Amino acid sequence: MTQGTVSAMATLSDDEVAAVSSPGVGPHPQPWPDDPRYDRTLLADGDRRNVADVYRYWTVEAIVADLDTRRAPLHVAIQNWEHDFNIGSIVRTANAFNVAGVHIVGRRRWNRRGAMVTDRYLHVHHHPDAAALLAWLAEHGVTPVGVDNIPGSVPLETQALPERCCLVFGSEGPGLTGELAAGCERVVAISQHGSTRSLNAGAAAAIAMYHWSLQWPPANRGQVPFPFTRSG
Ligand SMILES: C[S@@+](CC[C@H](N)C(=O)[O-])C[C@H]1O[C@@H](n2cnc3c(N)ncnc32)[C@H](O)[C@@H]1O
Question: In this structure, how many other beta carbons lie within 10 angstroms of the beta carbon of residue 108?
Fold first, then answer.
């Protein structure tokens, strides 16, 4: 990438980055739909946002309200050290799985690059430290499950995960802190077979969310988990 490209990207807003990454649709042909969920500015100018086709031209508020009717009972939490660029990627994946909540632990400011403004459609909570996150989860009946390849972790592939579950990720570099790992009901590790010590947190989070969603597809929720036959 040339230096000119880097500086041009640095001046783009989150909306502009999202727009250049999604072809979108142009102005809506007349007659316009008579429905309050539609945004008249988007109908007039076109919708370049990174949204599923069903939500084209909808207001952000209408999209969030629709997503709220069918959130997964899954939460994800991320320790926010060093403005980890993975947080944006995790937020985008959390939106794709329509999780109930995203929890940022530590600094309030986080690196939004990579989220592609998907955080607008999610409920994002901030917690100053591990104790505050764990207290919030206990109060809301959500089981914290740590995700890291640290001593004492068990292979994710063998685990039936709780339905009301919060997958807790560490940040690039330090990983999950001892305090937060100790507060989790268990810590699961994605088995690796190569030479690298770890996956990046964004990739690990996508795998873990997918693993939960295989066990708790919408049709299974509130019933019995997808049967697991392996022990571990
Ligand atoms: C780069 S890793 C952190 C350090 C890692 N524990 C190490 O020793 O290198 C960043 C985060 O990605 C996630 N992660 C990376 N690889 C993983 C794996 N194999 N299993 C589970 N989580 C993983 C964890 O949440 C971890 O805290």
Answer: 9
